[in-house]
Amino acid sequence: MTTLAPSEGGEALVLARTTVEGIPDCVVFPHEQSRGMRVATLLASAALGVGVAAIGSRHPGAEPLGIGLLLGLTFMGGLLSTWSPCGYSSLCLLRPSGNYSPRSLLRYTPTVLLHGLGYAAGAVVLGGALGFAGSMAGFAGASLAAAIGLGLVALLYGAHQLGFVKVPYPQRRAQVPHDARQRFPKWFIGGLYGFSLGLNYLTYVQTPILYLVTAAAVLSGYVVTAIALFAVFNAGRFLPILVNYLPVRDIDVQNWLARRQEGAALLDGALLVAFGAALLTLATL
Predict the structure, then answer these.
(1) I need a surface site. Which of 75, 175, 192, 249 has the fewest CB within 10 A?
(2) Contact 89, 189 (CB under 8 A)
(3) Is Membrane included in the keywords of this UniProt record (predicted)?
(4) What are phi and psi for residue 15, nearest 5 degrees?
């Protein structure tokens, strides 16, 4: 299995296998999380999802609750995508230059702003395309069939992340172009990386929550709704870059992420299971 470890220079986490084909389809980390722990996580997450849906259904209309849960899952999916090769790369390559100071942070700000604009542009392009495709296919937002379908997919991918089943996980197994930093200024790289990552399918994303967001965008049948979903997802992807404004060493950030890699995968599966259980409960009440 591909692992992440600090590089000799202390500036990045690198893949043990350097080829893009080495990026795994299924992220399962059994070293810290035993099978018993993962079974308990699955059951507790399912119970939590059912409980939240049962309590929420007492109020008029289940649709607002379902939308709220979807938006929360969407944002967390973007945030959890930090635990991937591209997430590590962006945090370490888009660092402020020079010593930490107000002046260096000021020079760094255009990079961050263009990075965020790249994410926004990616959300518009991808969300717009998926929303338009959904409208052409005749989808028109929330329906019982859509809720059941999304719920079942969420449960399957939750079990996939927790290591109990193997579900197809097709993606382009590539990272952001590292050689770009040798050919372009940092502010340009910030925008380039933001747009590449904001399109989500140009690079590898280790959380299947992306598939739930994609399906929801298509099923919405509305361009604006689909763009909004990916804007929320990409906001979660963008947020971690702000840590570079803090007076912390890059190696400390990278090691913090590495120590929590397995916990992030466990949380990923738990969120998917809880969401799926909640959606199926709302659909049947």
Answers:
(1) 249
(2) no
(3) yes
(4) -75, 140
Torsion of CA 70, 73, 79, 81, to 10 degrees: -100
Task: Tell me the pLDDT tens digit for each residue of 58-80.
Answer: 776 667 888 899 999 999 999 99
Among residues 76, 82, 4, which one has the least CA distance to residue 240? Answer: 82
What whole-number distance in Å separates Cα of residue 108 and Cα of residue 44?
A: 43
Using CA atoms, how far apart are residues 146 and 272, in angstroms rounded to an integer? 16
User: What are the tokens at 144?
Assistant: 């019982």
Task: Note the Cα 56 to chain centre separation in Å.
Answer: 26
Angle at the Cα of 197 (from 212 to 255), degrees rounded to 5?
Answer: 95
Which residue in this structure is represented by tokens 């990386």? 193
Helix (H, G, I), strand (E, B) or coil at 215: helix
State the Cα–Cα distance between residues 240 and 31, nearest whole angstrom. 26
